[in-house]
Automatic annotation (TrEMBL):
Keywords: Endonuclease, Hydrolase, Nuclease. InterPro entries: Nuclease_put_TT1808, Restrct_endonuc-II-like, Uma2. This is Uma2 family endonuclease. The keyword Phosphoprotein does not apply.
Length: 192
C-alpha cells in the first residue's frame, strides 16, 4: 500500500500580508520560503544592541538611518516578507512605502539572534539567503549564542559569496557600501 501524501496549497504573498495586517501587535510575522514564521518579541538586551548599532551608524554615516523592524520584500522575485531587526538605508527611505519596502537603496540588513529554537534556521540560514536574493549588499548578524559578529557581503545568485565571523570584542569592518568600523567590545556586556 502506498502512503497517501496530503497536498496543501501554499499561501500567497497577498494572503500572508492580509494575515499579518490582522495579527495582534504582540506578534511579529514573517514569510520566508513559503512559510509563515513567528518572530519572537525582543528582550531588553536585544533592543540595547540595536540602539548601540543605531548610534554608531548615526555617528559615522549621519545621512543614513538604521530603521528597526521595517517590513522588507525579500527572497527571489520578492515572494518573501521579513522584518529585519535593523535596515540601514538613506534617511527618509521608507517614506510612502506602506507596510513592505522594496530593497532598492538598502545598504545593510541586521539581525540579532533571539533565544528560541528557530533562531539557527531563521537567522543563520534563511535570512542570509533571503537578503542575498534581494541584493542587500551587507547582512550583519549579531549572534548572542556564540558571542560573535558575522558579516555577509557580495551577494550573487541568491547567496553571499563572502562571510567573516569575529568574536565579540573584535573590531569589525563593515564593507562597501556601509564603510563603518565597529568596536564590538560593548557587546560583551549585552549578552544574556
Amino acid at each position: 500500500m502506498t502512503p497517501r501524501t496530503e497536498h496543501r496549497p501554499q499561501m500567497t504573498v497577498e494572503e500572508f500580508e492580509e494575515l499579518e495586517r490582522h495579527a495582534p501587535e504582540t506578534v511579529r510575522l514573517e514569510f520566508l520560503n513559503g512559510r509563515v514564521q513567528v518572530k519572537p518579541v525582543t528582550d531588553g538586551n536585544h533592543d540595547q544592541i540595536i540602539a548601540w548599532l543605531q548610534r554608531l551608524c548615526m555617528q559615522h554615516r549621519p545621512e543614513l538611518w538604521l530603521y528597526g523592524d521595517r517590513g522588507m520584500k525579500v527572497e527571489r522575485y520578492r515572494k518573501g516578507r521579513a522584518r529585519p531587526d535593523g535596515v540601514l538605508a538613506p534617511f527618509g527611505f521608507p517614506t510612502g512605502h506602506g507596510d513592505w519596502s522594496e530593497t532598492t537603496g538598502v545598504l545593510m540588513a541586521v539581525e540579532v539572534t533571539s533565544h528560541d529554537s528557530d533562531t539557527h534556521q531563521r537567522d543563520r540560514i534563511e535570512k542570509p539567503d533571503g537578503y542575498a536574493a534581494a541584493d542587500i549588499p551587507v547582512y550583519l548578524l549579531i549572534d548572542r549564542d556564540d558571542r560573535s559578529v558575522v558579516v555577509f557581503n557580495q551577494p550573487e545568485g541568491g547567496r553571499y559569496r563572502h562571510e567573516e565571523k569575529l568574536p565579540f570584542g573584535a573590531t569589525v569592518k563593515l564593507p562597501d557600501p556601509v564603510n563603518i568600523s565597529l568596536d564590538t567590545e560593548p557587546l560583551k556586556e549585552l549578552v544574556d
